[in-house]
């Protein structure tokens, strides 16, 4: 029975965990400081509010330490890497490390810009608890295509959780690997949907000390909210609004009923 | 009868004033220059447009004097205090003073960041006609908790109107005190709802030379628009859209019917 | 019959072209790099996504060459001309010229700010394939009021297409002149509607080598989407969402049925 703890972790009730974290976020109202790209700031704040959290968003280098140190988690998104953000991000990461605050890295479009790739690598060296990326971003960072094996190897060698998002989300800490098949194609037609979802990953890491499970729970929540939202939408415009409504109204029971996890 | 003017001002018909200012805003299309935080810019512009005003938003220090001098009012919001904004705000305030243009200060999250608090104090010294803040922001600025007495004392000593927003809004110029109980909890789940509402305060100060009454009228309008919007919303996503619709369609008669003022 | 080509170009089937470009955008998923103002970034990205394109938005000077060189078109919008944008825009334009990538200039509010006017003139000298502006912006740039004659003369002397938007859009390359009467008044109550529409102009210039026709086709698409969206909207809030839905669902047949072109 010495392997029982590991075994029970492998068969965690992810929808149950997700429901419990969502309810705790609504009552504990965790603060998340999000240094995110200009096109994502508003939707990220609205997603966090709809899920129960409290966002702050300043990218001013002078202010970032104070905001990070009062937050439960930090999100670092590299989508628009202007001067203030380039200066603020290392300070935010250093503050998060000093306070043992979990932080999450989202290296948006890192494949498109050599200076961004270099910057992302220095962020990675700072030890995010979760790296969220898509296949193109992973390939740029890892120097090889994303496969279950390469992603696990990368997570292992960088001592982080990789949450590789796509039609199927793949989340791994290098040992365990969770697949989530929830979500809806309309999510790809709303800017910053992925960026904003990563803010929920950050919020959940503040509430649950296993970042693999926290990340998977957050992706499950956003994927299921997307499925519910799509039923009431006529396109990507109304979908933005029904998505926030669905997240705001999401119940633990709905998570159990809809989760597609393997 | 010498006290009649004061007395009649004390019993001002606020819903009537609010309806009249809203109709004037729609026809006179007042320009408001808003130096506001990155997450609030879009919603602030959309709220001003829905109410009938014309927003401009640049934070470039070189451009702020020209934009301020052609506007009817200025909004200064400290929500994301990056380099451009730190440089632009004093120039905008100086321009507003030179042109006797009313301007409104919104010291967002000033309790969270010592450099922001210092910056907010220097802004306050520039003489805003209205300071809009919540209880936490007030406490940081005033060094004491917000009570009707402390807020009136602060308004008096700073020769400004304080519009303290919360479940009940409290607006005072140090002498008169107006309470407004309109609004809806969903307003707290949309980012920048308060920031954007302060832009309407600014617009109304351009149209009415009593800033206490202008501020109260603007908060009445946003609170009632929020109540109407909530009826047609399923959560904070649809609420954003029904709120702008409600503001766009709001009639003076509706303001009279819904106002909860004391 | 030597004049046949010119004549057939004069009687181009614009709704047919617009439908074909829209369908190609959805399948070829053209990348557009948009250096646009802070209030327009999110809506611009969402409009491009709804139309089928792939937006990128960074304004970091270090990154702009890499993003521009991988894009099919570039949009330069001067709406919030802060330090990063002032530095990034000339680099983006130079990159576009090096790669023969079409680019479009939108000199928002150029009449309001002398440094912006000077900056806009230096951009114009860089040779945009389309200049999109309204009557006030045109007058500031041209030094005379916008009339069909002055706009044609300006297009001629600057060797560009001018797309003058208003109740009636007027598009000219200095020789041919197209008028489009589609659109809806609610479009004026949504911030960045025009700015975002110009991103579609940019996307279409990547797909069609006649910028006059590309610009006219894009304005036809946004105008008709606006008309359809207005039917399902109660005001400018819901209109934002129904507009993106209408654009997402727009069919070539609808373009043919609704186009008001002369």
TrEMBL record, chains A, B, C:
Alphabetized GO MF terms:
hydroxyethylthiazole kinase activity
* Keywords from the named record: ATP-binding, Kinase, Magnesium, Metal-binding, Nucleotide-binding, Thiamine biosynthesis, Transferase
Where ATP binds, per the record, is at 132, 165
Q: Which cofactor does it need?
A: Mg(2+)
According to UniProt, the reaction catalysed is: 5-(2-hydroxyethyl)-4-methylthiazole + ATP = 4-methyl-5-(2-phosphooxyethyl)-thiazole + ADP + H(+)
| E.C. number(s) listed in UniProt | 2.7.1.50
InterPro entries according to UniProt: Hyethyz_kinase (IPR000417), Ribokinase-like (IPR029056)
> SUPFAM superfamilies given for it?
Ribokinase-like
The record's comment on protein family reads: Belongs to the Thz kinase family.
Chain's role: Catalyzes the phosphorylation of the hydroxyl group of 4-methyl-5-beta-hydroxyethylthiazole (THZ).
Q: What is this protein called?
A: Hydroxyethylthiazole kinase
Q: Which organism is it from?
A: Microvirga arabica
- Gene from which this protein is expressed: thiM
